[in-house]
Amino acid sequence: MQGRLVILGAGGHGRALIELARDLPAIELAGLVDAAPCAREMLGLPVLGDESALPGLLAGGTRLACVAIGDAVARLAAAARLEAMGFTLPPLLHPSAIVARSARIGPGAVVLPRAVLGALAEVGRLAIVNTGAILEHDTAVGEAAHIGPGAVLAGGVRVGPRSQVGAGAACRPYVSIGADAVIGTGAAVIADIPDGVRVGGVPAKPLA
């Protein structure tokens, strides 16, 4: 997909998406908007104000948008507002990512540099696959989930909606992680994780 794109969210994830989008020759960046803008520019890209700037951008020909908000619930809500206005949320894949031809990536999802998506891997709508993460064959990452930098999902792993797999975590083949779960940094998941549970350690165990 090509066209002008606005980034909603001017924080750390916004900086990551600026750099990603600048490596996509078909994308022209229009700027950023933020609910509480605290600067006039970020990495040389203008911060255009709060969300009240969006209708004017749309009317001026900016049809594409992405959501640079780390919190999954807030990301989903922001995406719903953008889509209701008429913006399209394309998936954004960094050119250095290795993506199998049979992998599927949902609207609004982002795949950051040097990530790997294996055969039949599925990345849900608005999910984040962060730098260097590996999703092996037949993995499935749910809507608005976040796979942290350097995390490894072995074959057949399932990650539920809005869940977070921390940086450097590893999941054994075919484990299932429920919705709204949190896997701590560097954890080793060797058994299924229920909905809403926070785990950490090697092997991963529930956290108080």
UniProtKB/TrEMBL annotation:
Span of domain PglD N-terminal: 4-81
InterPro entries: AcTrfase_PglD-like, Hexapep, PglD_N, Trans_hexapeptide_repeat, Trimer_LpxA-like_sf
Signal sequence, renumbered to the chain: none
Entry similarity comment: Belongs to the transferase hexapeptide repeat family.
Name of this chain's protein: NeuD/PglB/VioB family sugar acetyltransferase
Lineage of producing organism: Bacteria, Pseudomonadati, Pseudomonadota, Alphaproteobacteria, Acetobacterales
